[in-house]
Amino acid sequence: MRISTQQVFLNNVDNLSRANSELIRTQEQIATGKRVLQPSDDPLAASQIIKLEQEIARTDQFQTSIDTADRRLSLEESTLDGMFNSIVRLREITIQAGSPVLNAQNRTALAAEVDGIINQMQGLMNTKDVQGEYLFSGFQGDQQAYSFDDATQRYLFNGDAEQRFVQIGPDNRIASTDSGAQLFETVAVPTLGSNSSGAIASLAVADLDAFQPASSSGASPFTISIDDTGLLTVASADGTDVFSQDVPAVNLTTTGVTVATDDLVSFNGVDLTVGNLPAPGSGNTFTAEVGSPLERDNILNFALDLSNGLKESDTSTEAGKQQFNALLARTLDALQAAEDVNIRATTTIGARMNALEQQQLVNDDYKLYTQETLSSFQDLDYNEAISRLTLQQTTLEAAYASFSKISGMSLFDYIR
């Protein structure tokens, strides 16, 4: 076989070019710290790298959603805390307003404070998040949650009842907002009928979902009786037995419970506080009815009614006093209901924030494990790469030296 000078030259050029390419590739690997620079370097590893990078990007998005949800819930929590303080102050004013020593001027001064609290609460209920959207408007984030309607002289809710959910994990979604429809529009005040003896001191709906079926008929759903032994029983309009919310539950219809003044009895979503009791051995029985349907409104309107009552009520007559006292009792029931809703909402927010924290830790661990796996496919072993670079440099230098000598050899050098 004959080997021409041109063939020798081309073979050496190819070898030098290949050695240069390998050296340059090693230099790029060392510069980037990546073993796989393009899919052709290692197709199997490249496919795994793409998948793992997508997982890391998705986890980063979950973490961003968690941060956003945590900010919203923290803002909501602080807002509800402000609302709770306002409700407590309204309760104090309502109790103070019932004092017989107050005159019209004193009540006007209290009304001015109530008006200030109303403005403060409206501001809290119209809180905006960092994106500039109203926090309690549901999906209608660009709509102010609460506004005053000049035509009806009432405060109206302008949002919807929807909650915004965010994905915080592969199989975990959580509500990052609450609508004013759940937080401020569910103040439900039942009315008491036949309570002339004052057997029931106060009544509130603690669980609207539990009470609503019983009150849907429009009739008084429950009749409460307290006999001269202090035994309290409850009869339902539909004839079914009523059970307390104790653990274990007590059948209030057939068994009943023995109560004292200021005791709390809960059943079917209703919380009642015991008031006056018949004298022992008198043979008397005090009764009261839980009225229906419920009066439902937002706390702003209940506070507005209190303000108007403080300004306009005439307590110089017995009828005026009774009407004013009924307003105060109704306001106290509304404030109790609003306070209960506020406490439940705050508890729910706390639970969600704990869930966010736990999911964030899970995401951090998952991301760490994923990055470790990605590193095993993608990252360069610097010790091996530097050794390989040194060997390639030596090989290339030797190739250049040998090619220089071989390219200068010719038969003509020996024929003189």
Task: Describe the SSE topology.
Layout: H1 5-32, H2 43-97, H3 104-125, E1 146-149, E2 154-157, E3 165-169, E4 172-175, H4 180-183, E5 187-189, E6 192-193, E7 200-205, H5 208-215, E8 222-226, E9 231-236, E10 257-258, E11 264-267, E12 270-274, E13 286-290, E14 295-297, H6 299-312, H7 318-378, H8 382-407
Antiparallel strand pairs: 1-2, 3-4, 5-14, 6-13, 7-12, 8-9, 8-13, 9-10, 11-12
Subcellular location: Bacterial flagellum; Secreted
Family: Belongs to the bacterial flagellin family.
InterPro entries: Flagell_FlgL, Flagellin, Flagellin_N
Annotation keywords:
416 residues; alpha+beta; five-stranded antiparallel beta sheet; elongated; 8 helices; f41 fragment of flagellin, N-terminal domain; three-stranded antiparallel beta sheet
Structure characterization notes:
It comes from Marinobacterium rhizophilum. Residues 3-139 form the Flagellin N-terminal domain. Keywords: Bacterial flagellum, Cell projection, Cilium, Flagellum, Secreted. Belongs to the bacterial flagellin family. This is Flagellar hook-associated protein FlgL. The protein has helices at 5-32, 43-97, 104-125, 180-183, 208-215, 299-312, 318-378, 382-407, and strands at residues 146-149, 154-157, 165-169, 172-175, 187-189, 192-193, 200-205, 222-226, 231-236, 257-258, 264-267, 270-274, 286-290, 295-297. It is elongated, with a radius of gyration of 39 Å. The two termini are 26 Å apart. By secondary structure, it is of the alpha+beta class. Among the domains are: 54-186 and 316-366, f41 fragment of flagellin, N-terminal domain (Up-down Bundle), CATH 1.20.1330.10; 193-292, no CATH class. It has 8 helices and 14 strands. A 5-stranded antiparallel sheet has the order 6-13-8-9-10, with no helix packed on it. It has a 3-stranded antiparallel sheet with strand order 7-12-11.
